[in-house]
Amino acid sequence: MTPLLFQIILASNLALADDPTAVMQIRYSGSLFRVNQGEEGDAVKRFSLFCLLTPNEAGKTEIFYLIDERGGGGWAWPERYGFVAVSPNADVPPTKHIQILQDHDGTKYPLSLPLPLFEDFLKVAEDAKWVTGKFEYAVQGQETVKDRECWVIEGSTNFGKAKTIAVSADSGIVVALKQKVFMGQGDQFTLLMDLESAEAVPAEDLTRFEAPLKTLRKIQDDLKRPAESLEPELTNEQLASAEPLLSQLETEADETPFGRLASVISRDVKSQLRRAGDVSELEKKFLGKQAPDFMLKTLDRKTLKTEELADKTIVLHFWEYQGEPLIEPYGQVGYLDYLNSRRSKLGTQVIGVAVDPRFGNDQRGDATRSVRKLQQFMNLSYPIAMDEGKLLEEFGDPRESGAKLPLWVVIGPGGKIVHYHVGYYSINPDEGLRTLDDAVVESIKSNRDDKKKSSE
Fold it and tell me: In terms of pLDDT, which residue wins out, 39 or 207?
């Protein structure tokens, strides 16, 4: 497909604009329904999708998207919007997907939505069939959908018919979608998405959109968030990068489709900055101080006492160890297990502390089984102890400041706290828990130096 043809297809015969390079704004509404015994129940989620389609000189179309979700959880604001580049070459996949996020039985599932421009539009013809990814598509014919002449296309997998898409015959814009979705233990849902409007952006609006879009892109780029991040919490570095742009964004986004998003970003960043300040004070309170003594019972019925570990560097990992759901990024626990295996010979003892109030009541058995399930699933070699919350309070419960677990505490052989960190670490897969490991290694070296000096 040539760049010019791609642009003409985008705008032709929509009665929206004569200029094939016009910027289009497209709005969708959607719902997710639970299916029981073949019958659709009440909606578990409703969502809206706003898109700006901007052809550029290279013949590509850049899609800015903004998702608003109601019910069933949803993305944190950094994942609610983004930019997708669509190539005029049908064989080049888009740079990313647009997704909603559904919380089902405690587990979060990203669910992909179609791009507003049907990716395989040039393949569409009477009785045409083709395969893209896991879907085999077959054109069923043409019919009128939402007052538009559309191609109706069925997508099937090895398990049968999975979705039906109505695509505008003139422009290739997706008009309607009905798709089967499965989550959990084979629980079935129906995903619906319908075109609400598609129109050219007036020149005066386009001028007003440019500044907030540029700022939104900068904020997202500076965050450097992993794709499909499920954690709403930002790191201190991410908060510091976003904070200076908040006032500017709110001013630029006023009376634009991005105004509500700008307000959400501003409120969340300011709230997280306040929590970060409280956590910083917590760190100052404990770092360099003598650690509280403790006596912990482990899952295998052993007792861990401070005095028995006096010559070791101790890593306490306070977390809500639970087998259901396996909350991301539980993979950090795998890195912690690797650290334990690597540093234990050098006098390091990692202890996972499962924090659960049920350990203090008659539901202790349920809590223990849940922790044991995670331990076995992750094949963890370090001991996991149980805490109803009392020991966590002694080390400073970050949840009282509105922050979340985990809490990582490194105690040197002398009994002083040498490292204190709330939340997840930023991870480079090649380095694992580098920051934590550096603190452990420094504690080991310091202990060796002290022993050497005392022997001289």
Answer: 207
